[in-house]
Design brief:
It is a single chain. By secondary structure, this protein is an alpha+beta fold. The protein has 2 domains: about 190 residues, Murine Class I Major Histocompatibility Complex, H2-DB, Chain A, domain 1 (2-Layer Sandwich), CATH 3.30.500.10; about 120 residues, Immunoglobulins (Immunoglobulin-like, Sandwich), CATH 2.60.40. It has 9 helices and 18 strands. Strands 4-3-2-1-5-6-7-8 form an 8-stranded antiparallel β-sheet. β9 and β10 form a beta hairpin. The chain is globular. The N terminus is likely disordered.
Length: about 350
C-alpha cells in the first residue's frame, strides 16, 4: 500500500539514518545456464559477499570486505552456504510435490536480515520466503509468528509457529546478532558505505510532445527525494516515479516523469527538485534545459538505456539476477519447507 501511495504523489520517502543487512538466496530447478544456488550479502545496497553452486566458494565483492576479515571468515561462510545449497535443493523437490509438479522451471527464494535506525536506535528484522515468484511464508517479527495465505505452506507455518525455541532464535538473530554484524560491516566499509556522491540531474524528453523526465543518476547513498513543483507549490498530479536502479559503479539512478502538455509547462514554472544527503538540486523546466539526444530507433533516451543495461549486468555479476528475474512484485519471494514440515530451514540465520 505504501509503494502505491508513493507512486501517486511522485516522491520516494527515505530514512537518512537507517541501515540494513540483507541476504538473498536463490535456488533453481530446470533453469539452464544459471547456477542452481546463489547467495548474495548486501549492506546498505552494496553487495559485499557472493556464493554460487558453480564456484562453491564464498567470495568478497568489496575491497573493504576483503581487507577486513581473514580466511577463516570466508571458510566459515563457505561451509554455511554449502549446507544451505543442499537444503535449497531438497526444498525445491518438497514444494514441487506440494504443488503436484514434476518438470519445468521452479525457483525457491529467501530474503532475510535486519535493519537499524542509527538516529532512533530502532531495529527490525525480516525473513521472507517464496516459490516461483509468489509469496510463500514470511516472519511477523512483532508478533513472532510466521504468516502465509498459501495452502501449500500451511504445514510449515503450523510447525514453525509451534516451535517456540525456533521463533526465539529467529528473533535473537534479527534483533541482536544481525545488528552487531551490520554495525561491523558499516565500520569495515565506512569510507565506501558512508560516502556522499551528488546526483547528476537532467531533464529529458523524447519528442516535443512527450512527457518530460527528470533523471537523477550517479548518487550515493541511495536515499533521495525527487518531486515536482508548479509555481513553487508541490505538484503531485500527472507524476510517475520510476524504480530506483543500481548503476554499474554502485551508485544509483531514479527518474520521475511529468505528463503535462508543453503548453502547460511553458506558461507556468515547473521545477524538478532532487533532495539528497549531499545537496539539493532544483531544475526549472525550460526548453533550453531539456536534453533531446535520442536514438530515433529506441523508445528511451540512450543514457537511460545504458544505465539500465549496466544495472542488469551488475545484477547478473552479483548473483541478484536470479532473484530479480522471478520477482513478480515488490515483496521478496522464497520457500522453506522440509518433507514433513519440520523446522529445518533452507537458509541459515547464524550466517553473519
Amino acid at each position: 500500500m505504501q509503494s502505491v501511495a508513493l507512486l501517486l504523489i511522485g516522491i520516494q520517502l527515505v530514512y537518512a539514518g537507517k541501515h540494513s543487512l540483507q541476504y538473498f538466496y536463490t535456488g533453481t530447478s530446470g533453469l539452464p545456464n544459471f547456477p542452481k544456488f546463489v547467495t548474495v550479502g548486501i549492506v546498505d545496497g552494496q553487495t559485499f559477499s557472493y556464493y554460487d553452486s558453480n564456484i562453491r566458494r564464498e567470495t568478497p565483492r568489496q575491497d573493504w570486505m576483503a581487507k577486513s576479515v581473514g580466511e577463516d571468515y570466508w571458510e566459515q561462510q563457505t561451509q554455511v552456504s554449502i549446507g544451505d545449497e543442499q537444503n535449497f535443493m531438497n526444498n525445491i523437490n518438497v514444494v514441487k510435490d506440494r504443488f503436484n509438479q514434476t518438470g519445468g522451471v521452479h525457483v525457491v527464494q529467501v530474503m532475510y536480515g535486519c535493519s537499524w535506525d542509527e538516529e532512533t536506535g530502532d531495529v527490525d528484522g525480516f525473513d521472507e520466503h517464496g516459490y516461483d515468484g509468489e509469496d510463500f511464508l514470511s516472519l511477523d517479527l512483532k508478533n513472532l509468528r510466521y504468516i502465509t495465505s498459501m495452502p501449500q505452506a500451511f504445514i510449515t507455518q503450523v510447525n514453525w509457529n509451534n516451535n517456540k525455541a525456533l521463533l526465539e532464535q529467529k528473533k535473537q538473530y534479527r534483533t541482536q546478532i544481525c545488528i552487531d554484524w551490520l554495525k561491523k560491516y558499516l565500520q569495515y566499509g565506512k569510507s565506501t558505505v558512508e560516502r556522499k556522491v551528488s546526483p547528476q540531474v537532467s531533464l529529458l524528453q523524447k519528442s516535443p510532445s512527450s512527457p518530460v523526465m527528470c533523471h537523477a543518476t550517479g548518487f550515493y547513498p541511495k536515499e533521495v527525494t525527487i518531486s515536482w513543483q508548479k509555481n513553487k507549490q508541490d505538484h503531485d498530479e500527472d507524476v510517475d516515479l520510476g524504480k530506483l536502479i543500481t548503476n554499474e559503479d554502485g551508485t544509483f539512478q531514479v527518474m520521475s516523469t511529468l505528463s503535462v502538455e508543453p503548453e502547460e509547462w511553458k506558461k507556468n514554472v515547473y521545477e524538478c527538485v532532487v533532495e539528497h544527503k549531499s545537496r539539493t538540486i532544483r531544475s526549472i523546466l525550460t526548453e533550453d534545459k531539456i536534453r533531446t539526444n535520442y536514438d530515433s530507433t529506441t523508445s528511451l533516451p540512450i543514457g537511460i538505456i545504458v544505465g539500465v543495461v549496466a544495472a542488469v549486468l551488475l545484477l547478473i555479476v552479483t548473483g541478484v539476477a536470479g532473484y530479480k528475474v522471478y520477482q513478480k512484485k515488490k515483496g521478496f519471494k522464497p520457500v522453506n519447507a522440509s518433507d514433513d514440515g519440520s523446522n529445518s530451514s533452507a537458509h541459515s540465520d547464524p550466517k553473519v
